[in-house]
Amino acid sequence: MRTKESKLWQRINLIQKTKKRWHLVRIESSTINGIPDINACIEDCEFWLELKANEAKNCGLSKYQINWHLKRQRAGGNCFILNQRASLRVLELLQVREPGIPFPVSRFIDNPSGLLKALVACGPDGQAAT
Q1: Is the backbone of residue 77 left (phi > 0), alpha (psi -120 to 50) or beta?
Q2: For residue 56, what are the CA distances in angstroms to 60, 85, 86?
Q3: What digits encode the pLDDT tens for the residues 104-125?
Q4: What is the dihedral of CA 9, 128, 121, 24, to 10 degrees?
């Protein structure tokens, strides 16, 4: 994970330490192409989260990442991309949709409250979960 994404993970990890029913694990795998950075379970809802911190049109997702997201969603899983766009000071929550394009789901102000809202949006009460 690049430096900016590592810092985003550190912020997420600080939040999870304050929540009893949250369990987020950073995944580091060189054996599975495309697997997201984080496996998360928030209050009985499991999902995967890819962290990005860039301004690229497709968030800089590789073809392996796009394919992983599409396969997981076809199997009924929830997976998201959390992109930190420094130029706009926002956190974007996206999902890869057919034919393999990151689609914006929600936007949040890039501050501790916004990050918490973005994570909750992936969970059981969030509107992003499909």
Answers
A1: beta
A2: 6, 9, 12
A3: 999 999 999 999 999 999 976 6
A4: -40
Q: What is the pTM of this model?
A: 0.90
Q: Whole-angstrom Cα distance, residue 19 to residue 70?
A: 30
- Identify the CATH number of the domain defined by range 3-122: 3.40.1350.10
Per-residue pLDDT of 30-40, as tens digits, reads 778 899 999 99
φ, ψ at 115 (rounded to 5°): -65, -45
Query: Alpha-carbon torsion 120, 69, 55, 94, what sign?
Result: negative
Query: Could you write out the DSSP letters of every residue in 1-54?
Result: --HHHHHHHHHHHHHHTT-TTEEEEE---SSSTT--SEEEEETTEEEEEEEE--
CA 75 to chain centre: 18
